Amino acid sequence: MADSPNCDLKSLSPLQLFERVTEQGEKVRALKAGKAPKDEIDAAVRTLLSLKLSYKTTTGQDYQAGLPPRDLLLINNGTAKEEDEDFVDPWTVQTSNAKGVDYDKLIVRFGSSKIDTDLINRIERATGQKPHHFLRRGIFFSHRDMDQILNGYENKKSFYLYTGRGPSSQAMHVGHLIPFLFTKWLQEVFNVPLVIQLTDDEKYLWKDLTTEKAYEYAKENAKDIIACGFDINKTFIFSDLDYLGSSTGFYKNILKVQKHVTFNQVKGIFGFTDSDCIGKISFPAVQAAPSFSSSFPQIFNGKENIQCLVPCAIDQDPYFRMTRDVAPRIGQPKPALLHSVFFPALQGAQTKMSASDPNSVIFLTDTPKQIKTKINKHAFSGGRDTIEEHRKYGGNCDVDVSFMYLTFFLEDDDRLEQLKQAYTSGELLTGELKKVLIETLQPLIAAHQERRKQVTDDMVKQFMTPRKLAFDF
């Protein structure tokens, strides 16, 4: 009996089976690395082989490390399961549901964990601070190993934050602010280092840009990021095009990841095809490498065991599923993650806001008049066709873009609830709700523009210079 896997395997889902195989594989590697007795290693290997057989019987697929069963992937060479109309990959988000992506299904498909009340309360106890409204409202809704981060923090063990931005245009939009606003809060309440990756190399590979233009966009986007209020003594911002040539630690980690991920795996995870350039195929390793503290020896004094926490939108999760699979095999801790929902386009939650369509976007460079015009003209309404019907039946906050945006940017919980009740009852009309959003966004963006004016090229250079931060490791 000791050599056979648990008898309840038939009750496990394909994803649970995949995770059991992955865990057992890590156990076998640990036993071998620790030079455990041969009979103990042999028993663990037999269990691993039995689990792999159960996995193949259940899914019809051979187990591949880092590649969950295909019918559970939303990233699948451009297609999704027929009965599930959501499509999510690192570049595209689409759904036919006016309410947006079904995030509960996404948690199941990606194999992450829901951020529940218990976890939010634990964050509050650990930090002594009221949870950010992004947590309270479920805007950051999913995680990987946040409990592990808190375990370490409560035992005086530090971690660091890593987030990023792909600089595809000179101007960022309000949706781009979400991870940075939340990351800034995390940095302040936990008092930890932060690294921000600008993937100008990625944009060169995917867009019709020169390397010079991609790097220029990186520096311009850095100004918007700095204007969020990050502490220069605790934050390092870097361009891949710039930093890769000066950091052997960063490049070594890229190489290690590249060695442990196959072409078939990246094809399965990211949907690459044989006609994609080899730069795209190798790029995921570049986004993975900042997850390891040895990529920043100037900050962490060469230490390799500092765990990383990555706040990001959930469309970036495929990069870090791959990273978490590789990490134990190269002797690194797995990065933990906090996932946010997508920021919807003005036309509706069927897709995320995209800078390629100016009418779907409110840019951080927009004037008060442009903000007002875009919201009034393009923001999808959950109101009724006539005022009479709206007064009688009320509006639908679940599909109304103005209300969605207010959940992101209106910090007053009581005011938000009042607006929801008033709009749902029909007391508040669509035009009135849009007016509240306009009056919320105009001063927020104007204040950001004022802070950005104070960001000089010299400040950008200081933030982007590799250096020791205000922490001792």
Question: What is the gyration radius calculated from CA atoms?
Answer: 23 Å
In the CATH hierarchy, the architecture of the largest domain is 3-Layer(aba) Sandwich
Ranges where pLDDT stays below 50 over 5 or more residues in a row are 1-7, 71-83
Question: Number of folding domains?
Answer: 3
Strand order, sheet with most strands: 3-4-9-8-5-6-7
Largest beta sheet, briefly? 7 strands, mixed
Shape: globular
Can you give the helix content as a percent range? 40-55%
Beta content comes to 5-15%
User: Mean pLDDT across all residues, rounded?
Assistant: 88
CATH classification class of the largest domain: Alpha Beta
Reported by name, the CATH topology of the largest domain is Rossmann fold
CATH superfamily of the largest domain, called what? HUPs
What class do helices, strands and sheet pairing give? Answer: alpha/beta
Distance between the termini: 47 Å
Number of helices: 21
Q: What is the tally of beta strands? A: 11
Can you characterise this structure?
The protein is of the alpha/beta class and 473 residues long. The chain has 3 domains: 46 residues, S15/NS1, RNA-binding (Helix Hairpins), CATH 1.10.287.10; 260 residues, 3-Layer(aba) Sandwich (Rossmann fold); 87 residues, Tyrosyl-Transfer RNA Synthetase (Orthogonal Bundle), CATH 1.10.240.10. The protein is built from 21 helices and 11 strands. The strands form 3 sheets. It has a 7-stranded mixed beta sheet with strand order 3-4-9-8-5-6-7, with helices on both faces. Strands 1-2 form a two-stranded antiparallel ribbon. Helix 15 links the parallel strand 8 and strand 9. Helix 11 crosses helix 13 and helix 18 crosses helix 20. The radius of gyration is 23 Å and the shape is globular. The termini are far apart. 41% of the residues are buried. The N terminus is likely disordered.
